[in-house]
Amino acid sequence: MAFLFVHEDREYLLSPGERLETDLGVLEVPSDVSPGETVETHLGTAFIARKLRLPDLFHHLDRTGAPMMPRDVGLVLGLTGVATGDRVLDAGTGTGILAIAMARTGAEVLSFEVDAEFAEIARQNTDVAGVTDRVEVRTGDVTEHLGGHDPFDALTLDTADAAAVIERAPDLLTPGGFAAVYSPFVEDSRTVVETARDVGLVDVESRETIQREMDFDDRGSRPSTRGVGHTGYLTIARRP
Ligand SMILES: C[S@@+](CC[C@H](N)C(=O)[O-])C[C@H]1O[C@@H](n2cnc3c(N)ncnc32)[C@H](O)[C@@H]1O
Fold first, then answer.
1. What kind of fold does domain 57-238 have according to CATH?
2. Which end of the chain is more exposed for a tag (fewer CB within 10 A), N or C?
3. How remote is the CA of residue 221 from the centroid of ligand 1, in Å?
4. Whose CA is nearest to atom 7 of ligand 1?
5. Using one digit for the tens of pLDDT, what is the confidence trace for 183-199?
6. Residue 94 CB less than 6 A away from ligand 1
7. Alpha helices of 61-161 — where are they, by DSSP H?
8. pTM above the 0.90 mark?
9. Domain chopping of the chain, boundaries
10. 3-51: which CATH topology?
11. 110 lines ligand 1 (CB under 6 A)
């Protein structure tokens, strides 16, 4: 498990025993470092070791596919209730942010990633996040690996072909289990909603995941005029 080493606006993600050369000096991380400890570079600059939390992982893990935004991760967790002891089928792994967030709640996650290089990076990311015991990243197209599983408590899908998995959701989910599908395009969301209804899933809801930051300055207060307007649509459905 890695830590975040922080000095003013500098942040470095480093594992125990790692060595980093910076313009502030060489930082050698002791193998028994613990959170809250101060480690000095050979030039005397102090870095504080911080335990990694999900927003740190979002900012510092090696990225492949666009990682799910923390607010959308929050919606998936809040709307599916994924929790300790649950088994989740996830695809595609991408950077692994969603899989890692679910594992950090105590869930067991089986995640498929079709791109072998992405899958390897995601495995390294689960190691950095300290959840290798609860996330298994398998290389492969999830739609070709839907047979032979014990039922899952949740399906979390962040792929363009999610509808092909939703078609099989009645067999893949435990009674009352949730499916959550994240899609950047409304056409994919519509296909997922129609498929979910066709196969008899219930409580089918789709929403755009909008969030507006606020600006507070001397002139007044208003929603920010900067930043991303749209990230995606989240569809939730449930096995009866
Ligand atoms: C948007 S990213 C997923 C991001 C991820 N949810 C996260 O939080 O980091 C989509 C990923 O799905 C993978 N993918 C697309 N179709 C797939 C499929 N049928 N099976 C497995 N992986 C797939 C892509 O290679 C890509 O890495």
1. Rossmann fold (3.40.50)
2. C
3. 38
4. 67
5. 999 999 999 999 999 99
6. yes
7. 70-80, 97-104, 116-128
8. yes
9. 3-51, 57-238
10. Vcp-like ATPase; Chain A, domain 2 (3.10.330)
11. no
